[in-house]
Fold:
Amino acid sequence: QVQLVESGGGLVQAGGSLRLSCAVSRSVFRSYAWGWYRQAPGKQRELVSTITRTFSTNYADPVKGRFTISRDNAKNTVYLQMNGLKPEDTAVYYCNTVAPLYDWGQGTQVTVSS
Structure:
C-alpha cells in the first residue's frame, strides 16, 4: 500500500512563500509522473502542477510563474515551492500520480491572508 504524506502548509500573508513536500512511502515513486492538486472550500479538486519521470514540468495558468514543482527520486519526495502567494491560493494541497492512482493523503492546508 502506497502512502502519501503531505507537509509544509501554513498561514502566510499575501506575497509570501511556502514549500510543500510530499513523501511517498515506496520506491514506486520514480516510476511515475507526479502532480500537486488543491481543493478550495466548496470547489472541486484541481490539478496545479505536474512533473514527469524526466523532470518535465507543467503548471496550471493561475500558478504559472509563481509555483515551482520538483522531485527527488532518492528521497521519494515531490516538492512545490510557492512564491507570491495570493488569497485565492488558499486550499488543501495534495499530491498523487498524474491520473491519480493512489488513495489521497490527508493533504496540507495552505491559508493566504490578504
Notes: Strands lie at 4-7, 10-13, 18-24, 34-39, 46-51, 57-59, 67-72, 77-82, 91-97, 108-113. The mean pLDDT is 96. The longest strand covers residues 18-24.
